[in-house]
Amino acid sequence: MEDFILSNGVRMPKIGYGTYLVEDDAGVSVVKAALDAGYRHIDTAAFYGNEEQVGQALAASGLPRGELFVTTKVWRDALGYDRTMRSFEASMQRLGLEQLDLLLLHWPTREPGDPESPALCLESWRACIELYHAGRVRAIGVSNFLPHHLLPLLETEVSPMVNQIEFHPGYTQQATVDFCQAHNIQMAAWSPLGRARMLADPLLTELAGRYGKTPAQICIRFALECGICPLPKSSSPERMRQNLEVFDFALSPADFWRIASLPPVGWSGLHPDRPRAAL
Ligand SMILES: NC(=O)c1ccc[n+]([C@@H]2O[C@H](COP(=O)([O-])OP(=O)(O)OC[C@H]3O[C@@H](n4cnc5c(N)ncnc54)[C@H](OP(=O)(O)O)[C@@H]3O)[C@@H](O)[C@H]2O)c1
Q1: What is the pTM of this model?
Q2: Ligand 1 centroid – CA 262 distance (Å)
């Protein structure tokens, strides 16, 4: 697996395994299957309720800690300095880890339109910086932050190293991607397959046929060619492996731009500043 190199020099494997909705008793075996399939970068969050299962799978894998890259996130109801610190410690307890690879603030707002969120976000960011300086986390970043949410953080002593946003063909949030890439913030893509909504898209199925790949592999390859780290989730070992087999082909420039120019489609309806859209 190749790596992205974050602004502080930390290496992050180019494809991560997404664990949202991987939970309960099956969670341990599913995450263990992902590690067996070759994933070394695991994306979880306090909100997913599966950090214990992720921790157990990491331990059961027997893989050296240094080969693993683990991300977790502080949920939006824990914005603020003290809450962020408590959320982090609770996550570490559940994961059973001494040091985390990447800590993200999950959303920039407690709820859309909350007037206190910008100040609370800055407090949370100060907590992240402290954890970073103390060596408890190797990198810090954010998720679902748009440029106007990022600007105040860029005024602090440590800029976010990662921003994880919804990104897939049909919903590429180009303004945020351009802003982050200009500020050396590594982007990561949640729902890189549009949570399977994009897999029957006519352009993606056409390209899949032509390249001898699946629509999922075309989506993952597209994110990588945009310089973005995809985090596909699958509960099937076969599809987990398939989602890693994307380093043996490249999209032609014309096909890349056809995907990049798709009309808006497949959006989840989530936006940090607005109530969830009914789609
Ligand atoms: N930061 C955030 O706010 C945020 C929000 C949402 C998600 N995330 C992260 O991003 C990760 C991925 O996003 P996601 O889970 O929403 O969606 P996704 O990875 O885009 O799509 C997952 C869906 O696609 C299916 N699938 C996966 N590989 C496939 C393949 N090769 N062929 C056909 N179907 C395939 C899965 O079904 P099977 O399981 O049956 O294969 C599942 O239904 C999450 O798990 C989470 O870690 C972060």
Answers
A1: 0.98
A2: 20
